[in-house]
């Protein structure tokens, strides 16, 4: 999806979740194909990446929010104008899974249902022996709230690209649906406003 000047259309994506679940690691792995131990994000970090989907491309503006509780209130400022959100939890931490659900509730207070594309992401599958949240638990919660769902490992680069690509495809499909609906609406408007001849009366 490109703008009139040919540049890919930008979409704002926010990464949400508690501290140490790997939000920054996912972003860094996706944008720069790099992985390293990262200090906790202070406030918010920002990345951009153009996603090529074949027939179209779009630009993801990725806002990586701080997960520590003391930053929770200011993170809501970054919700504004968001088109999509990744709710990230650590599969070895049940608490982080519950926190992701709280973030979803926060999102739902800010946006009408269905306005933002949301994906639930269980990170750190490389630590599966320490797993506290089963794949089925994550999948069931996602399905019950109409969320996309995937498990990843930023360390092993497992399904990281797939997460962002799936979000981008869903964003693109939503834009295309809206455009088709708008075109149908314009067509109906044109039909309803067709030329009218002078009123005829057959009674004499």
TrEMBL record:
Recorded catalytic activity of this chain's protein: GTP + H2O = GDP + phosphate + H(+)
- CDD domains the UniProt entry points to: Rab5_related
User: Topology in the membrane?
Assistant: Lipid-anchor
Q: Which UniProt keywords apply?
A: Cell projection, Endosome, GTP-binding, Hydrolase, Lipoprotein, Magnesium, Membrane, Metal-binding, Nucleotide-binding, Phosphoprotein, Prenylation, Protein transport, Transport
Enzyme nomenclature, EC number: 3.6.5.2
Which top EC class is given? hydrolase
* Compartments where found: Cell projection, Dendrite; Melanosome; Recycling endosome membrane
Q: Which family does the entry's similarity section mention?
A: Belongs to the small GTPase superfamily. Rab family.
Q: Which PANTHER family match?
A: DRAB11-RELATED
* One of the record's GO molecular function terms: GTP binding
- Which protein are we looking at? Ras-related protein Rab-17
Q: Where is this region: Disordered?
A: 182-204
One of this protein's GO BP terms? protein transport
